[in-house]
Amino acid sequence: MRALPVFLVTVLTAALATPASAAVRDDTRYVDPLIGSAGGGNTYPGAVRPFGMISWSPTSTRGDQTNTGAANGYAYDATRVRGFSLTHVNGAGCHPGAAGDVPIMPHVGEITSSPTADTKDQVFASDFSHADEKAEAGRYRVGLKSGATADLSVTTRAGIGEFTFPVNGSLLFRTSNSLNGSEDADITIDPATNSVSGSVLTGAFCGRRANGGTNNQKTYYRLHFTASFDRPITNYGTWVDSELRPGSTTASGGEGYLTGSARAGRGSGGYVSFADSSVRMRVGISYTSLDAAKRNLAAEIPKRATVDDIAKEARKAWAKQLRAVEVDGGTADERTIFYTALYHTFLQPNVITDAGQDVRYGNFSGWDQYRAHTQLLALLAPDVASDYAQSLLEISRKNGGVWDRWVHITGPTHVMTGDPSAPAVAGMYAMGARDFDVNAAYDSLLRQATVPHPDGLSDKGCPGQCEGQRPNLAEYMRLGYAPHDTCHCWGGAAETLEDSVADQALADLGRRLGRPNAEMERRAGWWRNTFNPETGHQQARKADGTWVTPFNPASDQGFAQGSSATYTWMVPHDVQGLAEVMGGPETAAKRLDGFFKRADGSWATGGDALRYDPTNEPGIHTPWIYNELGQPRKTQETVRAMARLVYRTGPFGLPGNDDLGTMSAWYVFAALGLYPRTPSSAELHVSSPMFPKARITAKNITVLATGTPGIYVEETRWNGRKIGQPWLPESFVERGGVLVSRLEG
Hints:
With 745 residues, the protein is an alpha+beta fold. It folds into 2 domains: 31-319, Beta-galactosidase, Chain A, domain 5; 325-744, GH92 mannosidase domain (GH92 mannosidase fold). It is built from 19 helices and 33 strands. The strands form 7 sheets. A 12-stranded antiparallel β-sheet has the order 1-2-3-5-6-7-8-17-12-11-10-15. β13 (235-240) and β14 form a beta hairpin. The longest helix has 21 residues, at 492-512. The chain starts with 5 loop residues before the first helix and ends with a strand.
């Protein structure tokens, strides 16, 4: 029997050692919900449970009631709020984001005018100081300059809030004031039962976007709510537009989906006042009906519960969810960055079904998530990923068989480009999410990729949210690329690259199901048809075969939120082929060197269209391309540099929009020293782990590293066997085991 290396014996012994406290491990102390709340991260700090339907968080204002401080309602530098809204979407980029439904504002003073008439948020809003604010996993507290305080916690579908007032306390229900506005809203106040109920009919995600957003100024969901109080209502009233209606118990009316003067002064809501200096409120929500909202509240929050009670349970829920990955070692800051990234990863997808029903999820930012988030979700929580995949299938059926690239709740919004559902579903299945109707999903996705749909010839919403999910598919199949002049898409070259990735995903999924598809395999190589050998870059091409000129690799012509310099690398499934057309692996690696570093040798961290942009998704896989080119040390160096330079503690801790957990998922993978080799496989690139020990509980995987915080991997072994290439086979995810890396430098 061959003796194991001493270092391997040591680390395997460590892997087998289980701390006595492991069963009650609680890493919520490292979660800082304020990370990403500044600098465009667009996260929110409010109370939420893993995958929660309700997320109770501030709606900030900069003096315009038809707008907000930042996308998704909260900006760290906007320290004035007009309410605490019941729904949010993490990290979406379109200002003012999505949801932000039913802001509830604790107000001090008499109600003498309509809150909707307060168009500049001068009267019915309040400043606050971050010194009086505390955000935790599952709980949010703040003291307002008005003297009121709010202490909030939640379950999956219900919330509880304790509000205090120095004098004359009221709660305002701004039922129509969702972030994007509303088509309609209604409220009913019942003083006899100390309750308020109502709903808002809304949608319009990205409806203010300049590149086609007006097509999204439409409705696609209704949120119902019911609230009850532990103190008697002593005064009440409603408002519609500028009219205050004291003593009224019902009101209705929406705001529309515009902004500024076109919407200012419109809307409806109601208020309830209390003689006591404090009031506890319980609130339940549902996307189904008011009765369902009442049942959700009754099922999840007992009548005598307190915020402390629910917050303790919320913390336990988060502690359990965060045990999906248990890391040891590292500094307190490194753990804070890691566990907050993991927390952000588990903010979505979001439950949309009611208590007692099969769990189904909504919210899918496909163009973003398929590059990191959906694979990580399947790796860490395969049960959730399975239900997510089934949910997307069912949503597509309700949408006439169309898998939309950006789904808000269950509404198709068409935002971004490509057909990301295919790699998302294929990647989740590969990573171990198997409990869904995968054959039906494959059949439906294959049909979308091969049978032209009338929407594919529409320019509605173009370029930023074109309705066609496979735009001008007949022409795409005839030419072998998306012609920039007739594609009805955001950019012909980007569409070709996205569809090549999607077709590879369908080929991979079909092969796993015993249904190989040679045509999809062939089409996965069509990225070559928009690679111009004369310029050495991806380039938009016209239907007549000519290239779109003039060409500049720093330009985004033909691309979506990225330049040719970035998109040229977007061939994760065929890096060897890409290297070949570039002149070979050595030439490709030299080009990567110039992509990641400026002329002075410093790292590129955004703001230069010719170089790597860690703030957006099209190129986030590129640090691992060095592995494919035979230079893994550069992958290790680059991944570690980006993790160190653009991820940090504090509000500015994310490099860009979190995009439903995608940027956070990138960091989790990077910290583990792993990353999907392609979006639709379970092969994993290897780089250098940042922690000496990490355990992925769902897969029984332990990742050990000696020599941390060293950057360079001198040797990697899986279950004692040396790994000869810088990636792991799919059997690693299937079987689990111990991965040991010896680091230096």
